[in-house]
Fold this protein.
Amino acid sequence: MSETNPAAAAEVAAPHRYTAAVAAEIEARWQDFWDAEGTYAAPNPKGDLAGDPELAAKPKKFIMDMFPYPSGAGLHVGHPLGYIATDVFARFQRMTGHNVLHTLGFDAFGLPAEQYAVQTGTHPRVSTEANIENMKTQLRRLGLGHDKRRSFATIDPEYYKWTQWIFLQIFNSWYDDEARKARPIAELVAQFESGERAVPGGSSWDALTAAERADVLGEFRLAYASDAPVNWCPGLGTVLANEEVTADGRSERGNFPVFKAKLRQWNMRITAYADRLLDDLDALDWPEAIKLQQRNWIGRSEGARVDFPIDGEKITVFTTRPDTLFGATYMVLAPEHPLVEKFTPAAWPEGTHDVWTGGHATPAEAVAAYRAQAASKSDVERQAEAKDKTGVFIGSYATNPVNGEQIPVFIADYVLMGYGTGAIMAVPAGDQRDFEFARAFELPITCIVEPTDGRGTDTSTWEDAFASYDAKIINSSGEGVSLDGLPVAEAKARITEWLERSGVGEGTVNFRLRDWLFSRQRYWGEPFPIVYDEDGIAHSLPESMLPLELPEVEDYSPRTFDPDDADTSPETPLSRNEDWVNVTLDLGDGRGPRKYRRETNTMPNWAGSCWYELRYLDPHNDRQLVDPEIEQYWMGPRAGQPHGGVDLYVGGAEHAVLHLLYARFWSKVLFDLGHVSSAEPFHKLFNQGMIQAFVYRDIRGFPVPAEEVEERDGAFYYQGEKVTKLLGKMGKSLKNAVTPESICEEYGADTLRLYEMAMGPLDVSRPWDTRAVVGQFRLLQRLWRNVVDETTGEVTVVDTEADEDTLRALHKAIDGVRQDLEGMRFNTAIAKVTELNNHLTKAGGAVPRPVAESLVLLVAPLAPHIAEELWRKLGHTDSVVHQDFPVADPAYVVDETVTCVVQIKGKVKARLEVSPAISDEELEKVALADDKVVAALDGAGIRKVIVRAPKLVNIVPA
């Protein structure tokens, strides 16, 4: 038998060896036990803790993973990296005396399920729920210690009832700039009614019609509908947020062209919170790279608002350099700017340069043609440093307020509606893009900052713009103000004061951040709890009508169009269900039953993940968003966490300016309105790296199945044809995915857990190597052998004291592993466990019981199934999950002796074993008395002795 099947022979010789089959049996049994016993159920402060003073005294720890999306493709081994890491950390926290909340739900609304529904006719809920069950099965096999009572999916009506409720809180709120917080819209109405606050436009509140009042409130609401430029994707049939459009102007999903179009859509006024979103970053324990991304995305800049008169009205610009106003020789509006039509005359004014018209007969023709051209470009493309500058004169002139000069107004695609006011004053002497545009369109360039590079002030000789914050201002004097000779900072202050005094501007702050586009022309998303009356006024549904559930539809797809046809508009799946759209309702506002039309857009897939941390706290509450006492316990502010939030949040860095920014905004609104005590959702953020895999591509560049590739003489072949090998992502489409099931079947889940944690630092990407997995399997086999006899299955530990070397190895491991697990350095923790286990293996003989039990407890967070099994075999009847983590004895952690190197003229002459606590003076005496040192000096005098106790003595002879 041994000749034909060595593995089978080994199993016969050692029937109780730790094998993949044994691991599978152990893991399934303990997973069933944990579920049946509710081992990972985290008690809440109401009821659970009240009756258990010991439990109530424990510190809490709320640990979260970023929401997974239940893909039909299932998991590959790269997906669970973060889940295993948070599980290890959560288990360690339980063992160090914490009440730990750790669970996992599913972010289940999304485009993939809807696309599958379009292709197959399967309801998105059916395929999504099947995907969730498959993912739960895969995750369960990994032994993750989740409190399953708290799990949910965003598609559950019981969940999205509260997503809709939060939307209504935002819709029925406004931001009070003076109080720096959100307040109920009813308070704003009361101010208008009483006259405490002036109604925009000067009318009295009583004189306004219902529609006019709705329009006024829409300018204040934190959730509002507006006609604004949006990213329209005909190929998907929906509009997209800026963050969902790639750098080359295509949809992140599907890679379709994206165009600028003006449509009526829902928005969230996240810009009202720009300052607070910036300021509160400082108190968060987040990676600096993520904080920087948010700061840059919010983009705070200080400057001035300046009004340029035009045809009895004005164009307002924002500039960070008001000191350069005298150098503004033309203006540029974004092609989408709402004032373009108003200031575009029927004919070109006399003297219009041919280069300004773009070859068109009238300004209207020129503007229309250029707008169509600009609509096909993304914001990134429009801001790119293109060699050729494009634009067109709209046919009107504005007045520069500081010198009265008439300057032409252009539209150009390098100006965006998404920044500032959508209009700029162009100062070509100080801005390279303006400089290139001015040269292309033969516009004047006025030097207003004295060059310090020797180029002189004659701009006709310049090859590029000159920008400086250190040079002096020149050529900048007008009626009532002169900036000549001033440094930049002083000039900015003086011109800002003049603008405010003259009533043509003011100092202000601008942000890059734009309001969040919150509408999607999709079926598979949360319906808006909004209805419109016969006058088109939006009304919120009362809470008693929530959740508003999705109706059945025959066609799940929005109407899609030719991807390149920008002249199209959305048609949503919900709009086709007339019985659902047109309803008669009594909204409880005293007006009785009335006819309404429902909103037929749905919320974006980000909505459900903006608040899910709160649902984990109180998942079955059908009366309120979350019980205040429960929220305060798990997420309220405390020492070191002034804004409260989740204690540890782990996920990918790709969500820096999407999910993380949106969730922070929702948290702040809920905090302002008094619904939660935490102003921030996530106190500590950790970004895990990525598990990568080799991708093999054939001569066409197509990926081939990685498991079928053969290596010969350093080259790689698939079906006899040579292929290229590159390190990249792991995934089904790249044909290099490795499933967790395949590794579990061959080695067991504990081995997979150990391997993923041992591959390297958690925040660093690392390549997957299936051949290396066996190393962690062998570690578990050696651990098993140190406790269990492979032949008899009996426990082999002995009730004797360990020798001093073993005690030192044990307590150094305890000390090191404890520190590493606390710091989430799981790879080095595993290295220390391995070192201790190897020490016991090399020592031979039976392992003392106290050492074996401590070793099992060290392993428990990392490999919980084998730890639970060995703990039970060692005679314990309670679960290892809630045991105390070992504490090191300091006496054994410190080395008894350390090696001190003695050098003479830089060369090692002796090595001394000394106490780690030895003083410099004592070490010098010991070194000078050593026989080898005395012999090496050979009677020579000593000029200097340099001592660095306890490891170095350097002797300099005379």
The two ends are 76 Å apart (CA to CA). Residues 804-822 form the longest helix (19 residues). The mean pLDDT is 93.
